[in-house]
Known about the structure:
Two copies of one chain form a homodimer. Chain A is an alpha+beta fold and about 375 residues long. Chain A has two domains: about 5-150, 3-Layer(aba) Sandwich (Creatine Amidinohydrolase, Chain A, domain 1), CATH 3.40.350.10; about 155-370, Creatinase/methionine aminopeptidase superfamily (Creatine Amidinohydrolase), CATH 3.90.230.10. Helix content of chain A is about 35%, strand content about 20%. Chain A has helices at about 5-15, 30-35, 60-70, 85-95, 120-130, 140-150, 155-170, 175, 185-195, 255-275, 285-295, 300-305; strands at about 20-25, 45-50, 55-60, 75-80, 100, 135-140, 200, 205-210, 225-235, 235, 240, 245-250, 340, 345, 350-355, 355-360, 365-370. In chain A, the strands form five sheets. Chain A has a six-stranded mixed sheet with strand order 4-3-2-1-5-6, sandwiched between helices. Chain A has a three-stranded antiparallel sheet with strand order 7-10-11, with helices on one face. Chain A starts with a helix and ends in an 11-residue tail after the last strand. Chains A and B meet through helix 3, helix 4, helix 5 and helix 9 of A and helix 3, helix 4, helix 5 and helix 9 of B.
Amino acid sequence: MNKFEKAQELLNDLNGDGWLIICNEDSDIHSRFLLGVASHARHYIYVAANGQHKVLSVEMEAGMIKKALEKKGVDAKVIFYTTIEDLVPKLKPIINKPRIALNFGENVLTEEGTAYADHIRVGDFFSIKELVPNTEFFSAAPIIEELRSVKTPEELDDLRNVCKATLELLETIPDWVKIGMTEKEIQAKLEYEYTKIGKPSFEAIVASGAHSADPHHNTSTKKIEPGVLLIDTGLQIDQMCSDITWTFWVGNNPSDEFLQAYQILYESKEVANKYFIADIPNYLPAKMCRDFLAEKGYDHERLFFHGLGHSLGFEAHDIGARIRWKSPKEYRLKENMVYTNEPGLYWSGKWGIRQEDDVIIGKEECEQVTYNHKDPIII
Amino acid sequence: MNKFEKAQELLNDLNGDGWLIICNEDSDIHSRFLLGVASHARHYIYVAANGQHKVLSVEMEAGMIKKALEKKGVDAKVIFYTTIEDLVPKLKPIINKPRIALNFGENVLTEEGTAYADHIRVGDFFSIKELVPNTEFFSAAPIIEELRSVKTPEELDDLRNVCKATLELLETIPDWVKIGMTEKEIQAKLEYEYTKIGKPSFEAIVASGAHSADPHHNTSTKKIEPGVLLIDTGLQIDQMCSDITWTFWVGNNPSDEFLQAYQILYESKEVANKYFIADIPNYLPAKMCRDFLAEKGYDHERLFFHGLGHSLGFEAHDIGARIRWKSPKEYRLKENMVYTNEPGLYWSGKWGIRQEDDVIIGKEECEQVTYNHKDPIII
């Protein structure tokens, strides 16, 4: 069953006539998710409950979209427009239906909200409300969640494949990273290898020395110095992203503080791993990890100021509630969800450490799709 | 004057109390534009008419944002939140003001609309309307247009610099592109060089053979074959992007059709160049280019099915009306706007050709910041 067919089924369950995706300059990831190709100009994808799917795009991208859909076996009509004046009369009959799902979020400022579905922009929203004033629009959040949060067997195979390729590349790092290279040069080399077979799933974070204390450091032209080197990177091939962090020591004689933190962090990750299991509440892996860190004498509230993990899939930050020790108790993991497990410890202005692996939630135990080394790699 | 100060001035002209940017998972480019750093988690930037600027971000990214603002000499208070429950009471007092500008577009389905300002998402919009029901929100389109469409001297220097670096790389292509490499490998090499000094301004289009007939082809693992090779690529360093297309011939004996099309297209681009001048209506460069192609016997309506150019700046597709022969007559170019000039001819299923250069609009003539070769490069 292709994604259009699965979406069509979900739409019928919700008594919707169609699911409309509006995308302009890559504003909605669900365009690439459904089409399998990136269309940049303004376009509309209409998944129809009756199977008469349509895509309305600019002439210049229509051929590319048609080819991509044929490759995926999707039966959808691709229509093209030339100007905005030409677009409007072609769009109206497609969406002039009683009940249409749209990618907007509800209650985004509450924990239980659906910010993950929030893609359509305000101007676009009011423009179509005006165009078809009698249509009822409802949030596509349930469709998005069903389509993306639990992964299919094909997606899980893609994940194993993309993680394997990423790990093989990470293993080569000690061979080519040298003191004096810049952070950017390391990023460039990683992404060069990715681009040959896929694309970076996000801009690699390469953080040397004190930069490693910023979990979302923007990779800079600073030269690699002896000490901590943190690399957080991922690849996308086909439908799935990898997302892995390894922390290295550059030069001789890693400090005792580093060696100890590395060891304890590794163990805290292993502790958490035991709780990435179906039906376990989301907060539990994070709580067990933090309890362990506290027991070992680390002030986790001060030193570990981000969540333990996030859903991973078509996007590096995918659909599904995060793994945080303060997550609402009713959020639970499901079989074949995919999560990162990434504890970290950061001493502001000094250095930081993070170990991030990707896991598939299983019935009895998780499948660890990636690994960190038990002892830190010395470069 | 830094960007916050300039925005503050524009805001006062519009009798606004603040300009609020809501950004989550890179949903609004104006975050990176203002902060000079990419923050990925949900954050709020408030440019205040009274100069008391504020940024509200997650703890993990607050330090990075603070450092970036200090580097730019921006006086803004960075506040962090931990959970959504913690965010709401911190956000409310910041935006509980009479009149606030927001990044939404109006009349996006008309030529005169402001789709370029449309960034805020529907769920976010209604969430803050609910939070501060007495606040009047107005479109930030005029602020965005003033800040971004006409470039400052510093931005123009950045442009010259980034274009020079891109051209130097393009000139090396005949040295390393070989028959049998994949399109992806060429993209990877280009972006590797970019990443060392900046970042790709968009995913490079590398199109061999029939792929060159798709103007927005998604670079594939197809091997380079003898014949047409189209490369459309750009780099971003600091504040500006380059965007250049060169079309090559791979192998011996370029066909006469190709040589002729290349020559005529080059001349059509030169014709258009004469009209990238302040106060000229936008449609004119496109019309003159198309008239020339028609005169030379090319059915431009069928073979050249995209606009002649787009604004270039902080984004590869920047703020400003496109250069299209059907553009409304009242759109006019202004001094120090930056545009692409990119005529193309495409024979579907066979091959295509495009030549794209970047120009700065001048008072008497444009400044050509990039070039295409007069005769095609044979690889």
